[in-house]
Amino acid sequence: MQPAPERPATIRFGLYEVHLATGELWKNGNKLKLQEQPFRLLAMLLARPGELVSREELQTALWPDAEYGEFEQGLNTAIRKVRQALGDSAENPRFVETLPRKGYRFIAPVRAPEEAEPEAPALPPAKPHRWPLWAGGVLLLVAIVGGVWWLRRPVMEAAPLFTTPTPFTSLRGFERAPSFSPDGEQIAFSWNGENEDNFDIYVKARNSEKLVRLTQDARNDFGPAWSPDGKRIAFARGYENGRRGIYVVAATGGPEIKLAETIWVPDFHPYLAWSPDGNWLVFTDRATEDAAGTGASPCLNLLSVETGERRRLTNPPAKQMGDVAPAFSKDGRTLAFLRAEVYDRSTLYLMPLTRDYRPASAPVEVERKSDGRVSSVAWMPDNRRLLVAKPWLYGSSANTGLWLVDTTRQSKPHHVEAAPNTTASVAVSANGEIAYAWRQSDMNIWRVHLDKAHKPIDAPKPLVTSTMDEIVPKYSPDGKQLAFISRRSGSEEVWSSLRDGTNPVQLTNVGHAGAPSWSPDGTHIVFDSAREGQYEVYSILATGGSARRLTNHPAVDGVASYSRDGQYIYFMSRRSGSEQVWRMRTDGSEPTQITKGGGYLALESADGKHLFYFKNGWTWRAPVNGGEEVQLPVRRFRSFLNFTVTGDAIYYICDPTASRELWIERFDLASQTTQKVIDLNAGPKNWFTVAPDSYVLFARAGIAVSPDGRELLWAQADLAGSDIMLTKIRP
CA-CA distance, 424 to 439, in Å (whole number)? Predict the structure, then answer.
């Protein structure tokens, strides 16, 4: 028997070093924070690189006395912290790979620090060789051609390293849309205040906690943009009628000046961009011809700060979300912006400009169809690279977070690992310092019991919880199990549990899974995922296993549900050019368009004769085989995930009123009457934060009613907020 080789005291992989004796993880000479249990888990994986380390082995070594639920939570937390420390992700792993229901495997090359590259074997001396005279000319030509290629070749730069982010703000509530002063010493931002009830514009200097409040209006103020001369700050103000006003105010405070009023596109920031000479602002507005019903998309416009003159800059294709997030290059000769096809899919464009800021040519596509909520663009000081922020929302794919994009295409877009994937807006100072706002949330699934009159008989309590988001609950047909979406493994996956939330089991490992729905016999779950670049419909056994793709079309397909007889699957598809309800066999065959006027998430009536579906915030009904589409007298709600159909009613989470209050209502299908079931504002404040960003989280959370009608589930943001952070590229 040969003695086992000694385990090295230090192990290296990539830019990382693991010191086993001291329990330390280092990166490029910087010590990283990693708790004891996650470190021990990482050490076990490193001891057997490339091999499966089973869940049973991990439990025996690290959680020997834990109950199953405690082990599951501990393991998921430890894996998540390891991935956070390494900047890794479950959906695109570089270091730790998940083998569903089996365990984990370390997939990166591992070596001890003393290992050296093997020396090349010595070659025998070459024999003298006489070359013909013409060979010298050939070699010279090759050298010249090679030299020209070398000078003109694309330079594949090494991925830049960013400093550890430090907080610039740590206020309660939401701070967002940072904008640097020209000297980089101050940042303007929008904050919803100490009472978390209204957004205003504030200014804060570095190394100071003093806030200067610039606006006092009862309406929300967003997207501050500091003028190039440092004297003024432009911002947008929301009106009750859906319009927006564009204002400027002195950077030190004072009277506001209204410059224009627009029909605004909501939820994009920063809203405004100054031209380098400080004479113009770029903003997004509805095209004037849209009033005639042409379907024209929102476009970028130029606004003179002095005269109010407007010029149209872009012409996006019809029936899109339009052009948003403008950013001037430092010399003013290029305008960067995002063209949003839909809310969560956009393309980065550059448009050359003349000296007077007119389009010099058509926009040029730089980065194609990057998933994630359309948000923010900022130029780096080199006038060549751009930072693009695309925060994660439910259903987003891996291409979210903060990205560094080379506009010359000399290198691939680089994911800024220093910033989380919930980064919502970004700004860059003249010296290259980066400020970004990142959203924090913890969504959990809550439950309340109902009596026969559909009224609560107890106080709502959390049912499925973790430190990550738990959303979109669905009861199994027999009411004994739940399916839901969880991010506790590091990406959005389909999970199941018992009715009471115990015994959670991860069913998928596809990344970016959403909208689970049970088959009538309870054997399968259908869901959507962007695992292959765009959303498609998949099916999986309710006990887990390999996911089977059901749709295969160039257009986006998703948001699926079963027919009552289990023979068909309804789904949303854009294959006809707009979002419509389609139907196919459970094997993906025979797709047929059902609606003509648009629709999401179709749910079949108990008798199997009608479909109830979401469109533009309202509930609609149509025959299952197509026909007249009728809007029901149901109150408006924002998300297609926020309604469900029982045998005799529709339950839904209402859109907020002017005070942003929320409640759940029941619409009786027989009597056509509405009943308020539960007020979601009556309990502790953390049930719902009134900030709009928190509502966006809440609105996409989902709702479910048990088959016996005695339990009501919904997901809510128990923690929500955002802070502004600072980082920069290391020298």
Answer: 7
pTM above 0.70, yes or no: no
DSSP secondary structure letters along 489-529: TSS-EEEEEETTS-S-EE---SSSEEEEEE-TTSSEEEEEE
* CATH number of 42's domain: 1.10.10.10
Count of alpha carbons within 13 Å of 445, Cβ hemisphere only? 28
Given 322, 351, 376, the domain boundary residue is 376
Could you give the CA distance from residue 7 to residue 5 in angstroms, rounded to a whole number?
A: 6
CATH, residue 345: 2.120.10.30
Whether the CB-CB separation of 545 and 101 falls below 8 Å is answered with no
Residue 198 CA: distances (Å) to CA of 260, 490, 683? 22, 33, 21
Q: Is residue 279 part of a domain?
A: yes
Rg (CA), the chain: 28
461-492 pLDDT, tens digit each: 999 988 888 999 999 999 999 999 998 887 78
Q: What is the separation, in whole angstroms, between the first and last Cα of the chain?
A: 52
The tokens for 210 are: 């003093």
Reading phi first (left if > 0) and then psi (alpha if -120 to 50, else beta), residue 528 is in beta
Q: Looking at the structure, do residues 229 and 83 belong to the same domain, yes or no?
A: no
Residues 72-120 have pLDDT tens digits of 778 888 888 898 888 787 766 778 888 877 889 988 877 654 443 333 3
Q: Is 680 helix (H, G, I), strand (E, B) or coil?
A: coil
- State the DSSP code for 298: P
For residue 375, give the nearest of 307, 425, 316, 337 by alpha carbon.
Answer: 425
Q: Look at residue 356 in the predicted model and tell me its pLDDT.
A: 92
Decide which of 376, 393, 416 is a domain's last residue. Answer: 376
Q: Are 240 and 315 in a shared domain?
A: yes
* Residues 595-648: tens digit of each pLDDT: 998 998 899 999 999 999 988 778 999 999 988 999 998 877 767 788 899 999
Give pLDDT tens digits for 409-418: 777 788 887 7
Residue 403 lies in a domain: no
Question: Which range marks the domain in which residue 445 is found?
Answer: 441-722
Indicate whether 408 belongs to any domain: no
* DSSP code at position 47: H
Q: Which of 434, 377, 429, 437 is nearest to 407 (CA)?
A: 377
On the question of a cis peptide bond just before residue 5, with omega within 30 degrees of 0, the verdict is no
Q: 305 lies in a domain?
A: yes
Q: Do 314 and 230 belong to one domain?
A: yes
